[in-house]
């Protein structure tokens, strides 16, 4: 899989993709993640990417022409990519959507910022507009990290443990059962006796009941 991220702040991605499952997936060449500075497609010497909104209003709006040029450039390097705009007004992100995106070959993720994005990006550039929740963030960078993490871990071979993936929270719309490890007792806080019983049938029933 190929993932391109368009952002005004590429430095924010230094670190989150360099560890754990995401790092291993890249090392295995299961995914290639490239971060692009949106200002690289600006036309003026000031690298301007935003302007005042028509009709008035607070803040600045990211320009449609810059985003369209950036997306067109990245699209020319691959066939049939999925273009995702991250915006607070988008459709709520789910585990089902993560699974759908993980089956694609190329994602182009646009990180919104400032007071918003020219709505023509929603209408004519993006294939989907996604929100990770009903709250306000400073930009689309953190949501992009969330989406990339949730998608990459679903790629075949990324986790290396199919059973672990199958039992994860939110798969099949279920929340994962409580889990415990040693010590068996700590500060009078005890592991449920059923998990120590060795009765695998009853343990499986307990897990289903606790989900």
UniProtKB/TrEMBL annotation:
Pfam families: tRNA_m1G_MT. Keywords: Cytoplasm, Methyltransferase, S-adenosyl-L-methionine, Transferase, tRNA processing. Gene3D superfamilies: 3.40.1280.10, tRNA(m1g37)methyltransferase, domain 2. Its EC number is 2.1.1.228. Residues 1-209 form the tRNA methyltransferase TRMD/TRM10-type domain. GO terms for molecular function: tRNA (guanine(37)-N1)-methyltransferase activity. It catalyses: guanosine(37) in tRNA + S-adenosyl-L-methionine = N(1)-methylguanosine(37) in tRNA + S-adenosyl-L-homocysteine + H(+). One of its GO terms (cellular component) is cytosol. S-adenosyl-L-methionine binds at residues 112, 132-137. It is found in: Cytoplasm. GO terms for biological process: tRNA N1-guanine methylation. InterPro entries: Alpha/beta_knot_MTases, tRNA_m1G_MeTrfase_C_sf, tRNA_m1G_MeTrfase_TrmD, tRNA_m1G_MTases_N, tRNA_MeTrfase_TRMD/TRM10. Specifically methylates guanosine-37 in various tRNAs. Belongs to the RNA methyltransferase TrmD family. Homodimer. NCBIfam families: PRK00026.1, trmD. This is tRNA (guanine-N(1)-)-methyltransferase. It comes from Candidatus Amesbacteria bacterium RIFCSPLOWO2_01_FULL_48_25.
